[in-house]
Amino acid sequence: MSTYVLIHGAWHGAWCWDKLVPLLQDQGHTVIAPDLPAHGQDFTPISEATLQSYANRVCEVINQQTDPVILVGHSLGGVSITQAAEQCPTRIKKLVYLSAFLLPNGVARLGYGDDISGSLLEQNKALSEDKMVVYFNESGLEATFYHDCSAQDIAKAKVLTRPEPTAGIVTPVRYTAENFDRIPRVYIECLQDRAILPALQKRMYSETTVERVISMNTSHSPFFSAVDELAKNLIDL
Q1: 122 pLDDT above the threshold of 90
Q2: Are 51 and 171 in contact (CB under 8 A)?
Q3: What does the buried/exposed string (b/e) look like for 154-181 if buried means 16 or more CB atoms within 10 Å of the residue's CB?
Q4: What is the Cα–Cα distance from 208 to 192, expressed in whole angstroms?
Q5: What is the three-class DSSP state of 32?
Q6: How far lies 232's CA from each of 79, 166, 237, in Å?
Q7: How far apart are CA 164 and CA 131, in angstroms?
Q8: Spatial CB neighbours of 75, under 8 Å, sequence gap ≥ 6
Q9: pLDDT tens-digit profile of 26-44?
Q10: Residues 114/101, Cβ–Cβ less than 8 Å
Q11: How remote is the C-alpha of 134 from its chain's centroid?
Q12: Dist. CA 51–CA 196, nearest whole Å
């Protein structure tokens, strides 16, 4: 049996994995889905939310496990798992990027992929006056993230999404061949994604070597719309 650690993306929290966790547990696996600082039910002050604090949280969870884990990151959570992999590589068996940012070394999320137009993200987000958080327009949530999801799941997301600290967006990831590059990587692409467009996903898994690409014909949120298929893909790893 495996241990899965599931890391959410921007504006989200551990709640986005609520349908997936029991499916993996029912097969005998251990599953941990933490909130990153200043996300979900974690009320760390926004000013203290940094990419380093995200990596520290992930490594803290990983180090509490008996065996090395399969570390899954969704969307902006890809940045967090990359930095955590550099920090605690011996505790990670495999990295899984679920329509996630798999960035080149020394690159930040901000500005990356802007030459690929059409993402609904850019039409629906707004920076706060103090530049500490990025807000998302509630009216754009469904079209951007959940267009193939149930009304119940969309309603849940509208209640639980929170403003996103800018720290994880503007801070470059930094990693080495000795640490990050030693860990096998898998990319799960979402072919109907309107947030991180398929062309950008392909660029990322082409620029940074992965051992396998798995395709899902879903929106940005297969943990809602195709959770059984997602669970099978993770278990098959």
Answers
A1: no
A2: yes
A3: bebbeebbbbbbbbbbebbbebeeeebe
A4: 22
A5: strand
A6: 24, 33, 9
A7: 11
A8: 8, 9, 10, 12, 98, 99, 100, 101, 195, 196, 220
A9: 999 999 999 999 999 999 9
A10: no
A11: 17
A12: 20
Q: What is the pLDDT of residues 173-216, one digit of tens each?
A: 999 999 999 999 999 999 999 999 999 999 999 999 899 999 99
- Name the DSSP letter for residue 208: S
Which residues fall within 8 angstroms of residue 200, CB to CB, at 6 or more apart? 113, 116, 119
Structure token pair of residue 211: 């051992």
Contact residues for 60 (Cβ-Cβ < 8 A; gap 6+):
none
Angle at 51 between CA 45 and CA 55, to 5 degrees: 105
Average pLDDT for the chain: 97
Both tokens assigned to 140: 């754009």
Rounded to two decimals, the pTM is 0.97
Q: What is the pLDDT of residues 54-94, one digit of tens each?
A: 999 999 999 999 999 999 999 999 999 999 999 999 999 99
Question: Do the beta carbons of residue 187 and residue 214 sit within 8 Å?
Answer: yes
User: What are 140-154's pLDDT values in tens digits?
Assistant: 999 999 999 999 999
CA atoms within 13 A of residue 223's CA, in its CB half-sphere: 26
Give the architecture-level CATH label for domain 3-236. 3-Layer(aba) Sandwich (3.40)
- Residue % of the chain over a pLDDT of 70: 100
Question: Which ranges of the chain would DSSP assign to H, the alpha helix?
Answer: 20-25, 51-63, 77-87, 121-124, 141-145, 151-160, 167-170, 198-207, 222-225, 227-236
